[in-house]
Structure formats: structure tokens, C-alpha cells
Amino acid sequence: MTIGERIKKLRIEQGLSQDELAAKVGYKTRSAINKIELNERDVKHSQVVTFANALGTTPHYLMGWTDEPVKNTASSLSSEERHLINLFRQLTPKEQGSLIGRAELLVEQHREAEAEDAG
Length: 119
Known about the structure:
Blueprint lengths: L2 H11 L4 H8 L5 H7 L7 H10 L4 H5 L15 H11 L3 H26 L1
Helix pairs in contact: 2-3
């Protein structure tokens, strides 16, 4: 499997569009991502780490030096959980804090609704 095929595989598994991946790695349009995935454009050595970080994997996996696609800390996460993490990482620290507060409120409301249903 080529580096482009590995990038495409991970991008699709994580539910990212080519536009979203382009934004995460600093490209202006998806056309560069499309060319990389089709192996029509090489990934510079300096960009391998950027792609690996954006896709939650290791440079070793993208380069084909290992078959383990995800970092050990993320290996137990579902694709939905990895997608949420990737979205979270695109936010500013202030937005991340706001999102955490909203999630905590949502969990609290869910627990209260469950308690009412049980009672």
C-alpha cells in the first residue's frame, strides 16, 4: 500500500473530507489531497509528520514501515470517537473549553432524564 492509499484509508475511516484534511495539514484546496491519494503528487518528508498527526497515526505507518495504523493510545477508540477528537483539535482553546462545558451539560441533562424515567 502506498502512502497516498494509507492517507486515503485513514481519512475515510475518520469521516474526513478531502477539504477537511487539506485544512488540517495546511493546504488551501482538496486538489492537493486528491493528487496525493492518487499518487500523482509526492508527500515531502517534512509533511509526513503533519499528515500523521492530522490522521492520528504515526509517520511509520504512513511510510509503510509498520502495519499498525493508529497510535497505541488511540487504538481502542471507535472511528466516531477518533472523528470527535479530530474535530475537537480543530477548535481554539477557548472553543474547546466551551465544547467541554456543553458536553458536561448534555451528560447531566441525560442523567436527569434517565432518573426521571426510572422514578
